[in-house]
Each structure stands twice: as C-alpha cells, then as structure tokens.
Specification:
The complex is a heterotrimer. Chain A is an alpha+beta fold. Chain A has helices at about 45-50, 55-65, 70-85, 90-120, 125-145, 165-190, 190-200, 205-210, 215-220, 230, 255-275, 330-340, 350-355, 360, 380-390; strands spanning about 5-10, 20-30, 30-40, 155, 155-160, 295-305, 305-315, 320-325. In chain A, the strands form three sheets. In chain A, strands 1-2-3 form a three-stranded antiparallel β-sheet. Classes of the chains: A alpha+beta, B alpha+beta, C mainly alpha. At the B-C interface, helix 1 of B face helix 2 and helix 11 of C.
C-alpha cells in the first residue's frame, strides 16, 4: 500500500530555525511520516584549526564552537588537556569552575524557554524572559569579563578570583532570579494554552530514548537517569562536593522537557549559592606546562546545558595531533527526528525546540538517514578504542 | 485563566527595561576586557604575548626610541581574550575598560594600537616653547 | 438653491475630511500606534519612540516607506487577483466605517444597515483569503486555507451576537441601536443578562476576526513564515497593513456602537459625543491588546473546537434568552 506523501522542506532559512539546517518532512495530510535532516551548514573546521594551534591558543578556538554553551566547551577542553598533562587545578579553582558552569547553564536554559515561548506564539513571555536573562549576563560579565564569550577556565585554573563583595552581589541577584523563575515555572506548567500545545506532544518513551542515544535534559525528561556531573567522577571540577538533585521526569513529552529545564535552572541557583558560601581559599591557578608529552591522551566529559559533551585530545608535543569533539546536539538528532513522527505539522516547531538544537556545535559529520538508527552510547574506553583504531591505520 | 495576565497589566506602570543606548551610556563591569594598554617601562620585548595570541593579533615592531621591539595590537584581529595579559611575565599588558568602538577599516594600519609616546614625531604634542627672557635693563 | 449648494459642500467635506476618508486614515494610523505602544509597554519595552511625539507618527512613516519599496511579484501567482483583493479589502473596511456614529449621525444610516455592515465585513475577510489563495506558494495557500477555516467559524457567532442588541432595542440600524441602548437597559433591567454575557463572547469573536493572539494562526510565523501575506512587499504590504489597522478601528468602533452606544448620551453635544466615542474605542482596543499580550497561540484544531463547540451554541442560547425576555 503506497500512501501519497507531500514533501515539506524546512529550508536553511526559516523563521523557526535559529540556525541554518535543512529538514525534509514527509507529510501525509497533516501527520508527519518521515524526517530527513541535512546538516552541516555551519561547518567551520574547528577540529582542523585546533591541530595547528598550541594548547594555549587552542583554548579560545575551542570556546568558539558554540555561542551559548562556550563555557562547557572551554571546560571540556581544559579537562582533556589537564588529563593529558597530568595536572590538577587548585581546590578553589574547582569551585569557581562550578560557579561559572552553573551560571551559564541558567542563561542557556532561559534562552531555550524564551525560544519555546516564541515558537508557541507567546511573544510577551519571550520578551520577559529575555529581560531577566539580561541580569544573568551582567553577572557573568562581572565575574568573568565577557558577557557571552566567557573564556574563564584556563589550563591549570581559572582567570580571575571572585571577591566577597562580588559573591554577595551574585547571591542577592540570584535570589531575585529565583522568584522570577518560579513565576515562569507557574506559567509554563499551568497556563492552559501552553499545556494544550505541549502536553502529550512529541512523546518518546524511555526505551526508545535509550535505544537512540539521547542525552541531557532531553533524555532526562523521558526518565533516563543519567547526568555526567553526578555519574562521572572527575578531578577538574568540584561537583562531588556540591550537593544537587538530578531532575528527571516521567511524562516524556515536550511539556516535561521544558519543565525539566526550569527545574534544572532552580537547581543551578542552589548550587551556585552553596559553592559561593563553601569556597575554600587558596590559589586560583597553578602554573601549567605549555605542552603535553607526546602521545598523551586526555578525555574531558562535561554536562553541557544540552547534554553530555566530550572532548578527546591526543597530543603531539606542542599541539594536539587530533582533537575530537562530540557534542550533545549531535547525539540528540536521532531521537529528535524520531519524535516528530506521528504528530501533526502544527507540532513541528514545539518538538523542534524541545530538543534544543545547537547546530553550531553539531556540524562535524554529515548524516544521511535516521531510519538506520545507530545507537550511540559513548564511554571513555570505547571512544579511545575507536579513535585509536581510526588514526593508527 | 491566563497566567500572565496580572503581570502584563502590572508592567504598564513600570519603567521600560530598555536602555536607550546612543543617548544613555552603559557602564561596563570592572573586569571587562576592553582595549589593551601597554606599559612601556615594564615591557622587555620578549615576544611571548605574540607567540600565545590565538588570533595572531600582536606584531612585534622595532622602535628606535626604546631600542627594542614592542608589541602592536591589531584590533581587527583581536578577540579580547586576555591571554596576552596572562602570558606576560612582567605584567606589562593590561586590558582596560575602554569598550572598542565599531570603527572598521580594511587597511590594518588604521586598526592598530600603538603606544602613545611613540607615535611619529610630527604627531606627538609639541612642547610649548619657553617665553623669551626679559630685555636686560641698564 | 444656495442651501442645497451649502449642504452639498458640507457633505463633500464630511465624506473626504471628517468623519470621512482623511479622519479614518489618520485614526487607523493612530490606532496602530496605540496598539503597538500598549503592546510594548505591557512587555516592559518601549514601543515606537522617535518619530513624532512619543512615536505617534511611526505608522505613517512605515506606510510611506513601504509605498516606496519594490514590489516583488511571483511568476506563478495571479497578480491581478492579489492587487484587486487587496484594494477591495482595504476599501471595504474604510467604507464600513462610514456607517458608524463617530460624531452624531453617521454619514450613511438606514434601517437594516447592521446586516449590510456584517455582510460587507464577511466579504472583506474573504478577500484576505483570496490574497493567500492567489499566491501559489505553499505558505500562502496553507495560510489562506487556515484563515478560511477561522473565518467560517467565527462568522456565525459574530452575526448572532450582533443581533442580540438589535433584538434588545428592536432596531436594525446601528445608529438607532446605539441611541436606544442606554434607555432600554435602564427601563428593562432584565435585558442586562443577555447584554452582559454577550459582551465577552463578542470580544472573543472579534479577537478571532482580527487574527490576534491567541488566534493568530494565519500569521503563524514559526511554521508558515507569514501565512497568507508571505509574498507581499512594497505597496501591497502597505495596503495590507492599512487594511488590518482599519479592521481594528472598525471592530472596536462597531462593538462600541452597538453595545455601548458610542457617544449617544451626548447626542446633542457633538464634541462631547466624539470624545466619548473615542474613549470607548480606546478602551475596547485596550482589552483586545491585553488579551493579545497575555496568550500563546492555539492550534487550528483547538480554535475550531472552541468555535463550533462553545461559541456557536452559547451565542444561540444568548439570542434565545433575549428573544424570550423581549417577547417576540
């Protein structure tokens, strides 16, 4: 039985997409039957650029993989390089890294919530969230020196210290932010029109999500209980000393994904307050060697706002011989494409926004078809084996 | 029923959150990484900053007045990452709070920061000549 | 003879200047400024600010700027039909405003003009659909079809609810309805029940007609770029903006006339009557903008559900109640 399907292209330029990507939706009436993503419009050759720069210079290139989550990339890069060099930052630097990681997670989740409101047509909520995000950006500027590009982690420590006045200011502003975020949570969870657009839309059950390899809040909203901060012990950030809850939800739909992110934002505020109050004193930076020994390998795994981010570096003396980045948006393309199937055209923007794609992070390789559904479960040893297999041929 | 109703109506009596930028100024924070400032007395011309700059935005240029090479910052290439400030062993480079203005020229010569005292002689402010001595009496 | 000539001159001035074309044009621009400024302030933004005092000349500036831009025509589209539909839509909306009592007696008024006005606005809404249909791009056609579904749905409750004041005041002329509404309500307080319930329902039907949130589906930016007006540019877009603004003016003034009597307490005093009409129009526009600012967008299936399951039966019920109370 052949059904006549219409091809609906969501081209590289479309008001729904905030970054260029191409999706071909095959629709039968109003129901989506198949999705084919064509990516790679923003490929900039970052991995090649990193091969020609020293580690000191490469830090800033790696940060520019993504505009929103650049501290995660910096952190993962530094983690990989510190592991390759075999050094560890001082304890105060580990806490400071927690502070900047969490504060950038707040602003990334706020971007997503505002964009979700905009896709729903809720223009006012978009404007209000953006106004409150401005406060976070000023705080980030006060701590790190840059509003969007933080460039705060350095190899061996962090850039600058936080003094007590600044810490008090951060805590005060964040407690005001907490009230605003609780108010937004009420709007997202109780407004009837928002609920009508998001509840029971784009459902992906837990088994499907695990089979297709989703990561981050996208997977945690489908009851996949995995968070790199809690489950991966690392010695470059102090997540083992700062208590926090991992937010999972049972509903597996778009509503759960948005609420999971709002709850994570509240958790971030708690974590920053704890970290600022319990910060050990001491140096913020150790003198790091300028080169890693030849052949040394390092893997940095961090929890970016969108999921699990991995940087893997193999050193060649001064420069990386090969630096491989696996971004969470890449892992989320497969389950996200599957989530569209069976729902109507009107739900396309909401499902699209709920997996929080960041195509700048994404452009590494070209994808062809989602039906083959490769399962990606990345573990450290597997990645090492795979990299060695490919580059020692 | 509509959850945002109360806040929307309340917003009517608040001042808009927009900063009217050409007419109002925005204060940058203390740690803001603006244009670079070079302290000539501390710089020894080692060139470590030029080696470490990720954007290749520092050129070491020979200056006869001080008898060594000094770094020139090419603003068109600089990403304001402050790596030069961290690398310099004598703390001669500081990132000021001066916000780089969006001047743009395709000639890189116009987009460089050159230390003030070392601009070409004609451009340096001329010292005021002393007044002539009073005519001798007697 | 001299009197006839004087009357003719006064009539011509009334048609072209006040309360005719010039006044309606300026009032449309003013209402667009009002809508944009209010919408912005509700979101803690500024709104138009620099052109004119507090930005009041901004819509005029936008109109003239759009008039001077190039019109990009599609090869496959039926360009004559697009231009014709646009002209018809904007002129119908301006024309129906002639039936409304802005100051004293409207320029055109006869027994039965309520029905004429309602039919003309249906025609205008259908013209907007024709714009989307004659553009062969998929965005335009899907947007046009969604608009048509919405228009078919809201027309019935709109008609029925507009007939409720007609039954209450036993008249089919907009001017008479407005004039008698106050006295009828004071003398028969039982009429307050259908009158007060039909006001919010009529507001919802108006919101659907204006395609404002939560019903701004034909303009679903995120899915369909801009729905039925995706491919309009230059003077076509200017004309469409003018049509939408005049539609807002008409809908607010219409609701003010038939439900609130638009200046009728001050029938003898034209200045006070005019001010009262303006105040009522601005208050109704305020409610329209408030709902627009505080709601997300419903999906087309939700809107159809709402219209056919709730709006149509309840409006028929209100009409039945008013008929029973009036004793047909």
């Amino acid at each position: 039985m052949s059904t006549f399907t219409m091809l609906l292209p969501f081209g590289p330029q479309h008001p729904m997409l905030h970054e260029p990507a191409h999706f071909k939706f095959e629709v039968d009436g109003e129901t989506v039957v198949n999705v084919t993503p064509y990516l790679n419009y923003v490929h900039r050759g970052i991995e090649k650029l990193l091969e020609n720069r020293t580690y000191v210079q490469g830090l800033y290139v790696a940060a520019r993989v993504c505009g929103i989550c650049n501290p995660s990339h910096t952190n993962a890069f530094v983690a990989a390089v510190e592991e390759a060099m075999g050094i560890e930052p001082p304890p105060r630097a580990k806490y400071l890294r927690v502070v900047t990681q969490e504060i950038h997670r707040i602003q990334s989740h706020l971007i997503l919530l505002a964009v979700a409101a905009e896709e729903m047509g809720f223009n006012s909520l978009f404007m209000l969230i953006w106004r409150d995000r401005e406060r976070i950006l000023r705080l980030i500027e006060a701590i790190t020196g840059g509003r969007v590009m933080q460039s705060y982690d350095r190899i061996g420590g962090v850039y600058r210290d936080i003094n007590d006045i600044l810490a008090e200011r951060v805590i005060k502003e964040l407690s005001e932010m907490r009230n605003r975020v609780i108010q937004y949570r009420k709007v997202f969870s109780e407004d009837p029109i928002v609920r009508r657009r998001t509840v029971d839309v784009g459902v992906l059950k837990t088994a499907e999500m695990v089979r297709l390899g989703g990561v981050g809040p996208f997977a945690r909203a489908s009851a996949v209980d995995y968070d790199v901060r809690r489950d991966h012990r690392s010695n470059h950030v102090a997540y083992d000393e700062v208590p926090f809850n991992v937010i999972t939800r049972e509903e597996c739909d778009v509503w759960a994904r948005l609420i999971a992110r709002v709850d994570e934002t509240l958790e971030c505020i708690n974590m920053i307050e704890y970290a600022l109050k319990h910060m050990p004193s001491g140096a913020i930076r150790y003198r790091a060697p300028r080169a890693a020994p030849k052949g040394a390998e390092g893997i940095g795994r961090v929890e970016a706002p969108r999921g699990e981010l991995v940087h893997h570096t193999i050193s060649d003396g001064q420069r990386p011989y090969r630096h491989r980045i696996r971004t969470p948006s890449f892992a989320n393309v497969f389950p996200a494409a599957k989530a569209h199937i069976g729902y109507s055209i009107a739900d396309i923007p909401m499902i699209y926004v709920s997996w929080d794609p960041c195509f700048s992070c994404l452009a590494r390789v070209t994808l062809v078809d989602i039906r083959s559904g490769t399962a990606k479960v990345i573990s450290g040893e597997e990645l090492r084996r795979e990299a060695r297999r490919r580059w020692e041929k | 029923m509509l959850k945002l109703f109360g806040e929307i109506l309340g917003n009517l009596k608040r001042r808009p959150a927009t900063i009217d930028v050409p007419f109002e100024k925005i204060e940058v924070e203390e740690i803001y990484r603006g244009l670079e400032f070079l302290d000539i007395d501390k710089c020894i011309g080692c060139g470590a900053c030029a080696l470490d700059c990720p954007a290749a935005a520092i050129e070491m240029v020979e200056f006869k007045e001080v008898n060594r090479k000094l770094p020139i910052f090419i603003i068109g290439r600089c990403v304001f990452c402050a790596q030069c400030e961290d690398t310099c062993p004598y703390e001669a480079i500081k990132m000021t709070r001066e916000v780089p203005k969006p001047f743009f020229s395709f000639e890189e010569d116009k987009m460089k920061i050159v230390p003030k005292e070392l601009r070409p002689l004609e451009k340096r402010p001329q010292p005021k000549p002393l007044p002539p001595p009073p005519p001798a009496k007697g | 003879m001299g009197e006839v000539i004087l009357e003719a001159i006064v009539l011509i001035l009334q048609i072209f200047i006040f309360p005719g074309f010039l006044f309606l044009l300026l009032m449309s621009f003013f209402i667009e400024w009002y809508k944009r400024k209010l919408f912005a302030r509700m979101q803690n933004r500024v709104g138009p600010k620099y052109i004119g005092y507090k930005g009041i000349l901004q819509p005029i500036a936008d109109f003239f700027k759009l008039l001077s831009k190039e019109v990009i025509e599609l090869e496959r589209a039926d360009n004559h039909l697009i231009d014709l539909s646009l002209l018809m839509a904007s002129s119908i909306f301006i024309y129906v405003c002639f039936f409304l009592p802005f100051v004293g007696r409207p320029l055109i008024s006869f027994e039965g003009d309520l029905i004429a006005v309602l039919l003309l606005t249906s025609a205008a809404s259908f013209m907007l659909f024709a714009i989307g249909w004659s553009m062969s791009s998929p965005y335009g056609m899907i947007g046009g079809m969604r608009l048509l579904a919405q228009v078919i749905g809201f027309e019935i409750p709109y008609f029925i609810l507009a007939l409720v004041p007609a039954y209450i005041t036993k008249s089919l002329s907009i001017f008479e309805i407005g004039r008698r509404m106050g006295s009828v309500l004071l003398s028969n307080p039982a009429y307050l029940i259908p009158w007060s319930i039909s006001i919010p329902l009529f507001l919802v039907a108006t919101q659907i007609e204006l395609e404002e949130a939560p019903f701004h589906i034909p303009d679903a930016e995120q899915e369909l770029v801009a729905g039925y007006f995706t491919e309009l540019s230059g003077r076509r877009l200017a004309l469409l903006d003018l049509a939408k603004d005049t539609q807002l003016l008409f809908c607010s003034a219409f609701m003010a006339s038939i439900f609130f009597g638009a200046g009728s307490p001050f029938y003898q005093n034209p200045l006070l009557g005019f001010i009262m009409t303006m105040v009522e129009i601005l208050i109704i526009a305020f409610f329209i903008v408030t709902i627009k600012a505080s709601a997300a967008r419903l999906a087309i299936s939700n809107v159809l559900d709402m219209m056919w399951k709730y709006l149509v039966p309840s409006s028929a019920l209100i009409l039945a109640i008013s008929l029973l109370l009036g004793g047909v």
